[in-house]
Amino acid sequence: MALFLSTFVNKVDKKGRVSVPAPFRTALAEQPYAGILAYRSLHGPWIEAAGIDRLQKFSDELEQLDPDRPEEAERYTLLSTLLGETYQLAWDEGGRVLLPQPLLDYAGIGEEAAFVGQGKHFLIRDPSQQRAIVEATIASRLEAKKSKDSPPKAPSPGRD
């Protein structure tokens, strides 16, 4: 399975074409589909993408689920929706894909797109959104560490 790491920011042309980062294309080189599969994230206003192997696993799982069993119905609906909303985006000879307008609109992507590695899949976000998330995460972690590492405050002397 492919492994996606790092963040790359690439230009999006007026038609919605964007170059998939070379390390991501290399990670997908052994896949039977020369492109990416992309869908609207259910976790925030961005695009999630991966190779066909990841979506094949979702498909295989869906085939094993029974939508009439209450304990399986929610997962069945989730996977069915995800697969039904996935776009297959083949890359051209330059490694570019055409991001469909509904995905661009959903993610608020304009002239640039940030490709953000997540291990087995990656995100495609507006670069300013990506920077804001990274900075907020780092600030939050540093603040939590600072609070944890600070010695307890001495009690105020009381009056008798």
Automatic annotation (TrEMBL):
<dbReference type="GO" id="GO:0000976">
    <property type="term" value="F:transcription cis-regulatory region binding"/>
</dbReference>
<protein>
    <recommendedName>
        <fullName>Transcriptional regulator MraZ</fullName>
    </recommendedName>
</protein>
<feature type="domain" description="SpoVT-AbrB">
    <location>
        <begin position="7"/>
        <end position="54"/>
    </location>
</feature>
<keyword id="KW-0963">Cytoplasm</keyword>
<keyword id="KW-0238">DNA-binding</keyword>
<feature type="region of interest" description="Disordered">
    <location>
        <begin position="141"/>
        <end position="160"/>
    </location>
</feature>
<dbReference type="Pfam" id="PF02381">
    <property type="entry name" value="MraZ"/>
</dbReference>
<dbReference type="InterPro" id="IPR003444">
    <property type="entry name" value="MraZ"/>
</dbReference>
<dbReference type="GO" id="GO:0005737">
    <property type="term" value="C:cytoplasm"/>
</dbReference>
<dbReference type="GO" id="GO:2000143">
    <property type="term" value="P:negative regulation of DNA-templated transcription initiation"/>
</dbReference>
<keyword id="KW-0677">Repeat</keyword>
<feature type="compositionally biased region" description="Basic and acidic residues">
    <location>
        <begin position="142"/>
        <end position="151"/>
    </location>
</feature>
<dbReference type="InterPro" id="IPR035644">
    <property type="entry name" value="MraZ_C"/>
</dbReference>
<dbReference type="InterPro" id="IPR035642">
    <property type="entry name" value="MraZ_N"/>
</dbReference>
<comment type="similarity">
    <text>Belongs to the MraZ family.</text>
</comment>
<keyword id="KW-0804">Transcription</keyword>
<comment type="subunit">
    <text>Forms oligomers.</text>
</comment>
<dbReference type="InterPro" id="IPR020603">
    <property type="entry name" value="MraZ_dom"/>
</dbReference>
<dbReference type="InterPro" id="IPR037914">
    <property type="entry name" value="SpoVT-AbrB_sf"/>
</dbReference>
<dbReference type="GO" id="GO:0009295">
    <property type="term" value="C:nucleoid"/>
</dbReference>
<dbReference type="InterPro" id="IPR038619">
    <property type="entry name" value="MraZ_sf"/>
</dbReference>
<dbReference type="InterPro" id="IPR007159">
    <property type="entry name" value="SpoVT-AbrB_dom"/>
</dbReference>
<keyword id="KW-0805">Transcription regulation</keyword>
<feature type="domain" description="SpoVT-AbrB">
    <location>
        <begin position="86"/>
        <end position="129"/>
    </location>
</feature>
<dbReference type="GO" id="GO:0003700">
    <property type="term" value="F:DNA-binding transcription factor activity"/>
</dbReference>
